């Protein structure tokens, strides 16, 4: 019995010592990382850093955190950031984002308020915390800008899963319910107010390859850049309008896409009207564009719908035979 008690005492002492060492190491790694950012010209500061949760967890809290990247000009401010780890699973992180956070640039400042925003991440601690899998859940998210616009998201879920056997390819999915566009934009797009206040379900599912893994270097140096998108489904419904796209594109080092995306647009005439209201299509060209799109729609047998292919070639984009203009550059800032 005495040996058993002695063994338990020794085991408890070792476990306590290991927890204390890991907690000290966590604080040291975080403070050194922040110091390294400051040495590179960042603004990187916090009011307090603590690690709690003995003996089964490591709960790290950073209070009054502020990070400013001199290369992009973005500044991020949060009153508190919580990162949780189970003692037996240091490769699994749980992040609880604060109810209010501020993201600023030289042009504007955006305040993000949320009822719920939390993330679960599986990472590789020995490989710059490279991402293996992640799930982020969002509820009641309101985004308000100093430029006078705001938008709202009722529910959202973002997931990423590294494809087995690869280092830099991920299955990415985002589903949003109850997306309310900014008021000025909604008034511009729909001056008559005939559309629902909120867009219905917005879905994005794709396998995305990047030029390197998503790890700490994405914050320290630069964001990984897209090299390929295999689009399984991108769709949105707003009132009686439905847009859906599938296909695949390769993306070069300059961000130029090459490939084909099959698109379906139901009640496309309403979409053209929205584009004219927004100024994306000059009003004097509306009739000509509707005539051409009407021919494209007629090929599918249902004139109210368009089933066509968006082709990205040599820096330009085409809808079937119709040239639309320069292709967008897919660059992550």
TrEMBL record:
InterPro entries noted in UniProt: DUF2125
Origin superkingdom: Bacteria
Protein name, UniProt field: High-affinity K+ transport system, ATPase chain B
Organism: Roseicyclus elongatus DSM 19469
